[in-house]
Design a protein that fits this description.
The complex is a heterodimer of chains A (350) and B (292). Chain A is 25% helix and 33% strand. With 350 residues, chain A is an alpha+beta fold. In chain A, helix 2 packs across helix 3 and helix 2 runs parallel beside helix 4. Chain A is elongated. Chain B folds into two domains: 30 residues; 208 residues, MetI-like fold (Orthogonal Bundle). Chain B is 74% helix and 0% strand. In chain B, helix 3 crosses helix 13 and helix 4 packs across helix 10. The two termini of chain B are 48 Å apart.
């Protein structure tokens, strides 16, 4: 267990800057989730922390020790890979014991650790099997067990659940969270699944274009996205965005002149206003007039796509409301639910 | 109706008949020499002189095999093939194991570590694959002379190791280039360094390509005649050279039945290697191209 500090960490491949100066201060016991579209630099960041790639500059400090120049074998960091990366020639027990063996832990102690880990993850009956004789979920448990066995200072998870089917993914997600609560090991978890990000992380870092767009608690990321990218990346169905204009009085108006809210401070001119689908509702006194173009019932909630003429928006409603395509409706936007972003830089304005 | 179903039946069966006919004929052509060798190796010499090479033996005898193995005159003494058979094993086993081992290690270093000139090293090794044997005869003779290995079995081992490294490196390089990178990264994070990464992870997971390399090297080294004829003497002849000497000896009666038996003995080990591990050979060659 240890705190992790990344200071001005960056990486260039030739002339291409894959990671810009990354600064993260991760206190002991935190669970940081890295999210971002593919190619955003999150895998590179993981590799730098693991020591599998060398940074072009900056420092990595783990538990008060500068490990920037240390090789992967000299860092006490364990990683769970997307493909599980279990050694096919070894039994489950040998897989779990492998990192201990490499570190010269005596055999008796290794065997005890294997038993402990197997009991914790309920894989004791599998210990003598080879990886190819295991199901996906079992492999995942073994991979986690192998990472646990050596009591690392830091856990790295690289999209560990993306090869599992939907139900198993939910189970394993809960298990990983429980495991983190029990062991308290500082963890970095890469995913592109927002639900994983929101449910697992004590903090989330949203990456794009090799930069951290926002680093905050899941709640803050969702309720106060720092910029337009974070707002659109987090949330499903994604946030509704409107081109709007702020007049001299601070009123935000849509292109057709409808007022949808206010922005107290800021320059007059073009802005982008965003509203989460669940913050809007179909109400007779709604500001926006439109026509329902599509209804998507999911069971617990229903998404209605509403054509406003200049744009199409999604409204999220609980249950199975009686709405039909083609119906003329009015959509209500509560002014306090507005996220306002600069039209140029995309930064949050309110 | 009946006529029509007959037609479809014929059109369905005919291609099969043709296919098996052609395949059977080809198999027959290939098996014919084997048949001739076997049949005539268990006949007394008189029957062969009678003229019918294809005929089944009238008086079955294993004497030619016995003669070929332990009585035939090859060197100064009438020792049969036995000592040369042993020579071939003493030459082939170390040559195969050492060249496979070095090839595996080369492949490991060439694929898992990006070092300056890696491509050049690999290109040079590849080039060695295409050098005709005859070109290296004289430099090799000189080298063996300087090393005091001329005319010895260890000398032949060296020659075959040097010549084999290009091939074995190529096999293992291609195999390791397709080795799952996450496994290697995982092992490195688990604390495996240079040698343990190779001996604990890559090598134990290389069985298919090891089989390919062993079969390839075994067949080449065992069957080699040129190097054997060039760099060995009476005490170190491999079996191919001994067989040649036996068959081409110009004195006495040509004992064809003994020759057939001797040829069969000389070819048996490679045949056995193929029969025992042929399926791994095909599987190993395919490995990496289709990941399952």
């Amino acid at each position: 267990m240890a705190e992790l500090a990344l200071q001005g960490l960056h990486k260039l491949f030739g002339a291409t800057r894959v990671l810009h100066e990354i600064d993260i201060q991760l206190p002991d016991g935190e669970f940081l989730v890295l999210v971002g579209p593919s190619g955003c630099g999150k895998s590179t960041l993981m590799n730098l922390i693991a020591g599998l790639e060398e940074p072009s500059g900056g420092r990595i400090v783990l538990g008060g020790q500068d490990i920037t120049a240390a090789g992967p074998a000299d860092r006490n960091i364990a990683m769970v890979f997307q493909s599980y990366a279990l050694y096919p020639n070894m039994t489950v027990a040998a897989n779990i014991a492998f990192p201990l063996e490499m570190r010269g832990v005596p055999k008796a102690e290794r065997e005890k650790t294997v038993q402990d880990v197997a009991a914790m993850l309920q894989i004791a009956p599998l210990l003598q099997r080879k990886p190819r004789q295991l199901s996906g979920g079992q492999r995942q448990r073994v991979a986690i067990g192998r990472a646990l066995a050596r009591h690392p200072q830091l856990f790295l998870f690289d999209e560990p659940l993306s090869n599992l089917d939907a139900k198993l993914r939910v189970d394993m997600r809960a298990e990983i969270k429980r495991l983190h609560m029990r062991t308290g090991v500082t963890t970095i978890y890469v995913t592109h699944d927002q639900v994983e990000a929101m449910t697992l992380g004590t903090r989330i870092a949203v990456l794009d274009g090799g930069r951290i767009q926002q680093l905050a608690t899941p709640l803050e990321i969702y309720t106060r996205p720092a910029n337009r990218f974070v707002a659109t990346f987090i949330g499903s169905p994604s946030i509704n965005l409107f081109d709007a204009t702020r007049d001299a009085a601070g009123v935000l108006r849509l292109p057709d002149g409808t007022a949808i809210g206010e922005l107290a401070n800021g320059p007059a001119g073009k802005v982008v206003a965003g509203v989460r689908p669940e913050d809007m509702g179909l109400r007779d006194d709604g500001q926006l007039a439109g026509r329902i173009s599509l209804v998507e019932p999911t069971g617990p909630e229903t998404y209605a796509l509403v054509d406003l003429g200049h744009t199409e928006i999604t409204v999220r409603m609980s249950g199975l409301p009686n709405v039909v395509p083609g119906a003329a409706v009015r959509v209500h936007v509560p002014p306090q639910a507005l996220h306002v972003f600069s039209a140029d830089s995309g930064e949050r304005l309110n | 109706m009946a006529e029509r179903s007959l037609k479809t039946a014929v059109s369905r069966v005919l291609p099969r008949v043709l296919l098996y006919g052609v395949l059977g004929y080809a198999a027959l052509l290939f098996l014919m020499p084997l048949y001739v060798m076997l049949v005539n190796s268990v006949k007394p010499l008189d029957e062969i002189r009678g003229g019918d090479l294809m005929a089944w033996p009238d008086a079955f005898t294993l004497q030619p095999w016995h003669d070929a193995w332990s009585l035939a005159q090859i060197g100064v003494q009438a020792t049969g093939l036995k000592p040369y058979f042993v020579n071939s094993f003493l030459m082939t086993l170390p040559a195969v194991l050492i060249s496979t081992g070095i090839g595996a290690f080369n492949g490991y270093v060439l694929t898992q570590f990006r070092f300056r000139g890696a491509h050049l090293v690999f290109a040079a090794l590849m080039f060695s694959v295409f050098i005709p044997f005859q070109i290296v005869l004289i430099p090799m003779a000189r080298t063996l002379g300087l090393l005091h290995l001329a005319g010895t079995v260890p000398g032949l081992v060296l020659v075959h190791v040097v010549y084999g490294i290009g091939f074995t490196t190529l096999f293992f390089r291609n195999y390791y280039a397709a080795f799952p990178p996450e496994l290697v990264r995982s092992a490195r994070m688990d604390g495996a360094r240079f040698f343990r990464l190779f001996f604990r992870l890559l090598l134990p997971n290389s069985v298919p390509i090891i089989v390919v390399s062993v079969i390839w090297q075994f067949t080449n080294v065992w069957n080699d005649f040129l190097f054997g004829a060039s760099f060995s003497d009476y005490s170190s002849f491999p079996i191919t050279v001994a067989l040649n000497n036996l068959v081409n000896s110009s004195t006495g009666v040509k004992e064809y039945n003994v020759h057939f038996a001797a040829a069969f003995i000389a070819g048996a080990p490679t045949l056995l290697v193929y029969i025992l591990s042929g399926k791994y050979f095909v599987r190993g060659l395919m490995a990496g191209s289709v990941k399952g």
